[in-house]
Amino acid sequence: MIVYVDILLFLNTVVDFIIITATCVLTRIEVKLWRKIAAAVLSALFSLYIFLPPLGFWVGLLLRLSASITAVLTAFGFKNVRRFIRCSAVFYGVSFIYAGGMAGIWMLFKPENMSMNNGIVYFDVSPLLLITFSFIFYVIITVIKKLVGREADLAERITVN
Description:
Blueprint: H1 5-27, H2 33-45, H3 57-76, H4 81-109, E1 114-117, E2 120-123, H5 127-148, H6 154-157
Antiparallel strand pairs: 1-2
C-alpha cells in the first residue's frame, strides 16, 4: 500500500484536533484555538513514525508517551501536576475510545485499504469519510458529557442547617 505523507498528516491533524477538543469539553478547560491547532499539528507529526522500521516495544512506548505529553502540554500548558495528570488521563481516555471505535469499524467492515506499522494505522479512505466519523465521535462524546455531567439544581446542592 502507498501511504501519502500529505494525507497522513492532514487526517491526523484533523483527528488529533477533534480529540484535543473533546478533551477540552470533558475537562471543562477552555483552550485558545491556536494552542489546539499547534497541539494537533505536533501530534500529527508523530504519525510519520509509520515510515520507520520497527524499533521495538520500549522505543515505541517512549515515542508515544513523548508525543502525547507534548500534545497535552502544548494544548493545556502546565499549571500544576494534578491538572496535567487530569488532562493527560482524559486525553488518553478519549484517544483510546476513538482508537477502539476505529478498530471496531475496521473489524466490522474489513477494509482492504488499511496499513499498520509501529502501531500507527493508516486508512486509505476518503478524507471526508474519516473527518465525518471523527466529527460524529466528537458529537457522541459531547452528548454523553451533557447527559452524565449534568449539575444539580442550586436547591439540591445547598444544605441548610
